[in-house]
Amino acid sequence: MSSAVEFDERLIETLRSLTTIGIHNAVRGFSGLLGHKLEFGEPNVKLVPLTEIPMIVGGPENEAVGIYLRAEGDFHAQIMMILPLEKAFQLVDLLMEQPEGSTTFLGSLERSALGEVGNMTGTFFMNAVANALGREIRPTPPAVMVDMVGAILDIIVATTGGVSDHVLLIQTCFKDGSRSVLTDFWVIPDAQSLQALQQAEKRE
Amino acid sequence: MKEPISVNLGEVVVSSDPADVLVAYGLGSCLGITMVDRQRHICGLLHAVLPHRLNGADPYCAKYVDSGIEGLLNAMLKAGADRRNLIVRMAGGANMLTAAGLSQTFDVGTRNIESALETLQRLNLPLHAQETGGHSGRTVRVYVASGRVTVRVVGGVEKDL
């Protein structure tokens, strides 16, 4: 079991800048995939106490979509993208170039589209982090789940609960013309990777 | 009507106020464990996150299943419950990750259930009912007035446990 990591201002700042690069990279990749420019809002990065997470996503019993993947290799982290169900429908419409309100149900095609969002975002994000750190990072295939917010977030809580009381939240907004979808990304680097990051900082 | 009392991650709530409803919302791999003393109208709910207490944590720490059950029992007895009357139920402990390659790694849900069964046996507390495992989140409610315990899954209706 790894020991707890102190999130000092400097570490948060490092994670914030890595994340911003990562999200930029992800959106660029996405635009390439869609064939037209997708924009995104300036990411909002903050440290959130574990116990407050369910409230941020609209209450723990609300139905939501979670897209989860892990980073493996030289840097271990978990990435969870979580969207209230309505937002997930909007994102599917945006991705599949349908009028807003077309998607009312998540079938296998819609789930696969959302999985691809997680896959692309996660991969581009990790590539940016890997470049910045000079380390090799690989994403696992994404898992898409539709359930209560609290239950989805238990994945994060259960895997970090013994180590850290806080996790990093990145909120950003996908925009396509006048349509935009706010998404939350939870990035949970494991304690050893954070320590490595801290040590790399100190050496600089 | 009074707002239900939300029992959050790593919390224990015990009540003898008939107007109270205790709720643990959206349990995934977490476990909701309830104890009810019908004779004395005392109910308690624990929302535990991880199976085993870490060294240095409080012996009644509600974040962990093992110490949380001890904490819930202790709080029930302190509130005046009679151990012999206690009806114990539990729900949760789902495995939320079903994708290939990911599911085995963190099956915290199953380990939580195992820890609960071990702890209850050690404390000699019989388990009255459970709805555990699977891949769906659950919400657990305890109605203090009647001692009724219910479980609901997403898109489903509330059912008695």
TrEMBL record, chain B:
GO terms for biological process: chemotaxis. It catalyses: L-glutaminyl-[protein] + H2O = L-glutamyl-[protein] + NH4(+). InterPro entries: CheD-like_sf, Chemorcpt_Glu_NH3ase_CheD, Cytotoxic_necrot_fac-like_cat. Belongs to the CheD family. It is an enzyme of class 3 (hydrolase). Probably deamidates glutamine residues to glutamate on methyl-accepting chemotaxis receptors (MCPs), playing an important role in chemotaxis. It comes from Bellilinea caldifistulae. Its EC number is 3.5.1.44. The lineage of its organism: Bacteria, Bacillati, Chloroflexota, Anaerolineae, Anaerolineales. One of its GO terms (molecular function) is protein-glutamine glutaminase activity. This is Probable chemoreceptor glutamine deamidase CheD. Keywords: Chemotaxis, Hydrolase. Pfam families: CheD.
